[in-house]
Amino acid sequence: MDDVTVRPATVDDADQTGRVHVRSWQVGYRGLMPDAVLDGLDPVARAARHREILARAEPGTATFVAVVDAAVVGFASVGDYRDGSDPDGAGEVYAIYVDPSAWGAGAGRALMDAAVAYLTTTGPRPVRLWALDGNERARRFYERYGFLADGSVRTHPIGAGLDVPTVRYSLQPA
């Protein structure tokens, strides 16, 4: 794969990030979520949601895209940790997804580098993220990067009254 470039996302990236989001879920979460949920994902609807998020970005949040040959192959969204009970001012990687055709080619690492740099630009602080329990590929990626499962677990609603188990990972400041 050619060189990966990471840059801030724009509203014009929404169609491509929507496609990446759906493809990465359909391949990465197969066997971890019901097939009906994965098969029912709509890249057009996901793109509309991404467009809305990018158009009204909250202060302190950012979305980055990984680009190869002018095509978006991945994205990461970050900001302050969303659980208000976290006393240490942590940042959070809300989402990081790479198109399956680009897995293992450096886009995920480049996106995580941008995410962590953004979250720690004003000084060292923990960075957290939630991973789908059973998503061994993602969990290995996070662990290679330096994140550790910190013992926090919860469920995440995926629609139709279904919840999936998730595990929290933390990257401590150096």
Please write out the topology.
Elements: E1 5-8, H1 14-28, H2 35-39, H3 43-55, E2 62-68, E3 71-80, E4 91-98, H4 107-119, E5 127-132, H5 136-145, E6 148-159, E7 162-171
Description:
The protein has helices spanning about 15-30, 35-40, 45-55, 105-120, 135-145, and strands at about 5-10, 60-70, 70-80, 90-100, 125-130, 150-160, 160-170. With about 170 residues, the protein is of the alpha+beta class. A seven-stranded mixed beta sheet has the order 1-2-3-4-5-7-6. The longest helix has 15 residues, at about 15-30. The radius of gyration is 15 Å and the shape is globular.
Summary of the model, kept short:
32% of the residues lie in helices and 33% in strands.
The profile of the biggest β sheet is: 7 strands, mixed
The neighbouring-strand order within the major sheet is 1-2-3-4-5-7-6
Total number of strands = 7
What is the count of helical runs? 5
Given as residue ranges, the uncertain stretches (5+ residues, pLDDT < 50) are none
Q: Give me the secondary-structure category.
A: alpha+beta
Radius of gyration: 15 Å
Percentage of β-strand residues: 25-35%
Shape: globular
Proportion of helical residues: 25-40%
Q: What value does the average pLDDT take?
A: 93
Features:
single chain; 174 residues; alpha+beta; 33% strand
